[in-house]
Amino acid sequence: MNKKRELYFYRDYFKSFYVEQNAKVKNKILWTLKVIEDVERIPEQYFKHIEGSDGLYEIRIKSGKENFRIFCFFEENNIVVIGHGFQKKSQRTPAKELEKALNIKKEYHEEKSDKS
Q: What percentage of residues in the chain have a pLDDT greater than 70?
């Protein structure tokens, strides 16, 4: 199957989150990332735009009763830049997590423009 998107893991934000998870959650994360790479139209239960967030998306993982989110955004063409993840413990996304995601996005773009 041809990939529809390419994932780019920016710095070690994702890795720091991923290594802390148990095997079941890790498998679900990897499965969900594969869906994002391969499926033409990603179901909203796995991938959702965050309203009013200047282009941020959340990758949504559910493992048993636990919910996890991984922030990301699109780069040119079909590159998905993966930022940090966290375990979601309430209905609303914590403001500090959203702020961290926006800072990572800003950092990425500043670093990219410095290289140009």
A: 98
User: How long is the chain?
Assistant: 116
Beta strands in the chain (DSSP E): 6-9, 47-49, 56-63, 66-75, 79-88
Backbone angles phi, psi at 75, to 5 degrees: -115, 175
Tell me, what CATH number does 48's domain have?
Answer: 3.30.2310.20
Residue 70 corresponds to which tokens in the numbers above?
């991984």
Separation CA 96–CA 107 (nearest Å): 16
Supply the range of the domain harboring residue 95: 6-115
User: CA 10, 12, 13 angle in degrees (round to 5)?
Assistant: 80
Tally the domains of the chain.
1
Does the structure show a pLDDT above 70 at 1? no
pLDDT digits (tens, 9 = 90+) for 83-108: 999 999 998 889 999 999 999 999 99
